[in-house]
Amino acid sequence: MRYDLVIFDNDGVLVDSEPISNRLLAAYLTELGHPTSYEDSLRDYMGAAMHRVHDLVEERTGRKLPADFDDVFHARVFAAFERDLEPVPGAVGLLEKLAADGVPYCVASSGSHERIRVGHRKTGLDRWFDDGRIFSSQDVGRGKPAPDLFLYAAKRMGVAPERCAVVEDSPLGVLAADAAGMDVYGFTAMTPPERLSGATRLFSDFGELADLLV
Fold it and tell me: What's the sign of the alpha-carbon dihedral 149, 150, 155, 158?
């Protein structure tokens, strides 16, 4: 293995949550008087922490989102996760390979700790991620595209940044990994390759990624 640590983004990489959450986000913003399409949501918010939603809406409209916005949105998302969420095809197989080979791995997500755990419980991924392998933007001051979260995860896992590989599917995540000095593998299942052009390598399925990481 070329790396001492593999850091996974969560939404869209381990769990197939991006279609669910971005449809709900677009609908909720539109409901609140901020017309947003599903495509708009993917473009502007995919891979971002919730503070980016608040910041962009206020920057564009001069209006703040309601104080309970995050709570209402997450309640809708979690209910949808319980109905529809599945692991990303091939993710479990790669985790099995990393575990069998003794390669350390973790997740570093813009989502909250609660969101990560709800998704992992529903999909069965919780068996692969104990609390020591889960890192959230809640743990640091700035979310992606700042490098803080990835650097924090690497430090907690005891690995130098240059020995880490990051698996990401969002432009913001690729920027963050690059700023952290880490190699980053861009997953193109939902994101056009040109939007992940800053990645070290691109891949479209997890079988391909396993070969790239060796």
Answer: positive
